[in-house]
Structure to design on (324 residues):
């Protein structure tokens, strides 16, 4: 490193003192470089802005591209004085997962109150960019407009989307083309698919739902979907399918597996939906689970930073492995 001209020189032994000056200056620059490297490791946040496209699990209950805060992961309970209210809103597909995380987080921090409202992905993102929530839950990628408003997506998991039917329909599986035909109005009776002579009742989520967005992108239909009912929560979709002969709909795989009784979870192109088949890439219908913040997480307040330390730490990973 060229630092010799900055070294001190004596009139009687210039070369000797010049060499010592170079050594001292070089050492200072090396130490400064090491300090900058360490600072970047300590203060850097998780890798954000990941798209769900092509992201798969690693087969060990984790995500192949999951961000890890080495300095923060597993650091729960290190700040027992943490207090305040953490406001979370968004996707109903994440209800069971986030409710379990919130419960565990509040056990670690008794003076923290975590409030969660399951209002749908778009509403959750808008709550974050509008300042009425600290974290938004989204089961879809952010739009460019949302990113321009400061929204940043943090990948928290993957969930399959299960296509479910009322058992009275008499069909146990569909192809992707048949599913597209049902949702665009080209197929209107289960008899056309080898089932019972019964009109198909097409159920779906409301506009703005992350699950609906992922489902319709999978269909790649040239015409809009034609719904008999558009419902505002996963639970409402399941209830309508269970109570309506002829009904078909789509919900979070995790939610469908909790119901099972009285529900037919359809094969898709001959593949059974499960986290194993999602992670293996053989079941194509899935969506990301994002936790959205306004700005980078590392620059957020202490409650938000500790929340992400918790979900990426040992306890948070255990909860995700248990539920998915």
């Amino acid at each position: 490193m060229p630092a010799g001209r900055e070294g001190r020189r004596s009139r009687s032994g210039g070369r000797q003192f010049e060499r010592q000056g170079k050594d001292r200056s070089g050492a200072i620059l090396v130490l400064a470089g090491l300090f900058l490297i360490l600072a970047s490791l300590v203060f850097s946040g998780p890798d954000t802005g990941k798209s769900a496209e092509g992201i798969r699990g690693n087969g060990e209950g984790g995500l192949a591209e999951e961000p890890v805060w080495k300095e923060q992961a597993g650091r729960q309970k290190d700040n027992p004085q943490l207090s305040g209210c953490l406001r979370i809103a968004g996707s109903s597909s994440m209800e069971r997962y986030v409710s379990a995380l919130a419960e565990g987080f509040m056990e670690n921090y008794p003076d923290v109150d975590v409030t969660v409202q399951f209002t749908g992905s778009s509403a959750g993102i808008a709550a974050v960019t509008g300042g009425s929530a600290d974290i938004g839950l989204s089961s879809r990628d952010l739009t460019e407009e949302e990113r321009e408003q400061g929204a940043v997506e943090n990948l928290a998991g993957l969930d399959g989307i299960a296509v479910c039917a009322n058992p009275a329909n008499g069909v146990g599986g569909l192809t992707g083309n048949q599913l597209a035909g049902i949702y665009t109005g080209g197929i209107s009776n289960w008899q056309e698919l080898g089932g019972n002579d019964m009109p198909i009742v097409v159920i779906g989520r409301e506009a703005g739902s992350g699950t609906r967005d992922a489902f319709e992108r999978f269909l790649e239909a040239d015409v809009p979907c034609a719904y008999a009912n558009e419902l505002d929560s996963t639970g409402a979709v399941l209830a309508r399918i269970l109570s309506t002969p002829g009904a078909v709909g789509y919900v979070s795989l995790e939610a469908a597996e909790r119901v099972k009784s009285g529900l037919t979870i359809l094969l898709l192109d001959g593949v059974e939906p499960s986290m194993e088949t999602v992670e293996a890439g053989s079941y194509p219908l899935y969506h990301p689970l994002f936790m959205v913040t306004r700005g980078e997480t590392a620059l957020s307040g202490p409650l938000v930073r500790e929340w992400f330390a918790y979900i990426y730490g040992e306890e948070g990973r255990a909860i995700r492995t248990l539920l998915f």
